């Protein structure tokens, strides 16, 4: 085995993160960087030793993907705070929610925030715990200070109610912050005390398993199942599934939100058909709404599924779509990869689109998002600028250019781009908003643009 293959295997064994061969360049750069003092062989030996803990921390900080934002996948969060949590007996003193892979904290804080807004659970009863393997993101979570981009899905009224605007950013108000705690924890570690039976009423494990191979996910989900109260709930990301991973849960659906409930002995006897709403049984179950009508065929169907964040359905519709290999199909494929956080695949598809000489503005934009995710803001700005050159009316490219320019301190350039974005957004094509709006409508994006512009104006 080459040193790089050994490094990749160690990363998978220790952190669960699986890297395809095409993604090994990232590992190679990291290996070269970290082994500068010890040499590659010495470094690989060190990683196997018990004293390598701080080194693994550094690796986790470099390799984990931490994309998140407040009120992400809102229909699931609504189901959690309006149906799932209130369904537990009022005699239960504490409702414990775990966010596994909580990144910079937006997800656990969103649970606390939305629960207070809906008012169906006494805040004193709700305890939210966020865990993550990356200590850097946890420090951010504990600081609870966020950029406007992180709050892009939070309506203005809620933003004013729950955050204090400071020169550093939007700081979460203390009473909300106090409901949430954070712990550094690697999901691959057994930790029987942490995963003790009955520890949690609901677990959010969203947008994490996409980076794990199935056998790793299987082990973690089995541990989670043991740690839930009887009939407890598990939420995965909309593009993730327990199919082939666990049969200890049944699938529930409320409107567009899918989630799982641990089977009770009674419900296990009559398994709910996969993919269909499960039947509420004898417990205090959440009401399960009837399934929405099927989306239309072809491109419109894919877009409708995408807009509703039903990614699995979008993939299925895309595969069935005539002309799926044409540029438009390829573009949709790239956007679906992007939404699932598979940036290497999205980048590949974006480059392919460019080589097809079609949908140039979209392809550049897509590549810009991938670069931004990898922390290369300068490269991303170049891509957004190229997108704007290819289609000067593409509002979102001006919006991202402006945001990045402001972040880099180029206030004059940021103002020009953001003014352009704000003037073009009312006319932006609905297709572009669906593909690249990150789940936000015209109004939400307009708010982001105006806030960014206002922030530029505040700089002398
Ligand atoms: C894309 S973020 C998801 C954030 C949030 N759950 C959401 O849906 O917005 C994935 C998070 O999983 C964390 N993660 C990855 N591998 C992990 C592991 N082995 N143990 C704990 N956390 C892990 C990463 O550090 C990252 O912050």
From TrEMBL:
InterPro entries: Bact_Chemotaxis_MeTrfase, CheR_C, CheR_MeTrfase, SAM-dependent_MTases_sf, TPR-like_helical_dom_sf, TPR_rpt. It comes from the Bacteria. Residues 1-265 form the CheR-type methyltransferase domain. The keyword Oxidoreductase does not apply. SMART domains: MeTrc, TPR. Signal peptide: none annotated. The keyword Transferase applies. It holds the Pfam family CheR. One of its GO terms (molecular function) is S-adenosylmethionine-dependent methyltransferase activity. PANTHER family: CHEMOTAXIS PROTEIN METHYLTRANSFERASE. This is Chemotaxis protein CheR. It comes from Melittangium boletus DSM 14713.
């Amino acid at each position: 085995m080459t040193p790089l293959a050994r490094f990749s295997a160690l990363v998978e064994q220790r952190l669960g993160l699986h890297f395809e061969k095409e993604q090994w360049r990232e590992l190679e750069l990291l290996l070269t960087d970290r082994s500068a003092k010890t040499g590659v062989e010495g470094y690989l030996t060190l990683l196997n030793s018990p004293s390598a803990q701080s080194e693994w921390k550094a690796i986790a900080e470099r390799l984990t993907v931490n994309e998140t934002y407040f009120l992400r996948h809102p229909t699931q969060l609504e189901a959690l705070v309006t149906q799932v949590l209130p369904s537990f007996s009022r005699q239960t003193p504490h409702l414990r929610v775990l966010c596994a892979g909580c990144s910079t904290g937006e997800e656990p804080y969103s649970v606390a925030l939305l629960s207070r807004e809906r008012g169906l659970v006494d805040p004193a009863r709700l305890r939210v715990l966020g865990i993550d393997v990356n200590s850097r993101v946890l420090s951010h979570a504990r600081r609870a200070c966020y950029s406007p981009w992180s709050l892009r899905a939070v309506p203005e009224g809620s933003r004013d109610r729950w955050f204090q605007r400071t020169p550093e950013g939007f700081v979460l108000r203390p009473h909300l912050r106090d409901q949430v705690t954070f712990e550094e924890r690697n999901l691959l570690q057994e930790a029987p005390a942490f995963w003790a039976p009955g520890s949690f009423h609901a677990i959010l494990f969203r947008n994490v398993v996409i980076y794990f191979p199935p056998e790793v996910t299987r082990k973690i989900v089995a541990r989670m199942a043991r740690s839930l109260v009887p009939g407890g709930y598990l939420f995965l990301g909309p593009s993730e599934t327990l199919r082939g991973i666990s049969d200890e849960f049944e699938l529930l659906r409320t409107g567009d939100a899918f989630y799982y409930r641990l089977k009770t002995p009674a419900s296990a006897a009559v398994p709910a058909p996969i993919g269909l709403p499960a039947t509420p049984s004898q417990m205090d179950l959440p009401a399960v709404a009837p399934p929405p009508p099927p989306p239309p065929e072809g491109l419109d169907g894919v877009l409708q599924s995408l807009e509703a964040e039903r990614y699995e359905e979008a993939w299925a519709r895309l595969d069935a779509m005539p002309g799926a290999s044409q540029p438009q199909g390829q573009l949709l494929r790239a956007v679906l990869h992007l939404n699932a956080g598979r940036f290497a695949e999205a980048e590949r598809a974006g480059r392919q689109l460019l080589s097809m000489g079609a949908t140039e503005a979209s392809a550049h934009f897509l590549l810009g998002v991938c670069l931004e995710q990898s922390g290369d803001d300068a490269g991303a700005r170049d891509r957004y600028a190229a997108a704007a050159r290819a289609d000067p009316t593409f509002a979102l490219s001006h919006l991202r250019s402006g945001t990045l320019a402001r972040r880099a301190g180029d206030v004059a350039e940021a103002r020009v781009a953001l003014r352009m974005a704000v003037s073009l957004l009312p006319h932006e094509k609905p297709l572009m908003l669906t593909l690249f709006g990150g789940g936000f409508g015209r109004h939400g994006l307009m708010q982001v643009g105006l806030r960014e512009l206002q922030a530029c104006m505040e700089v002398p």
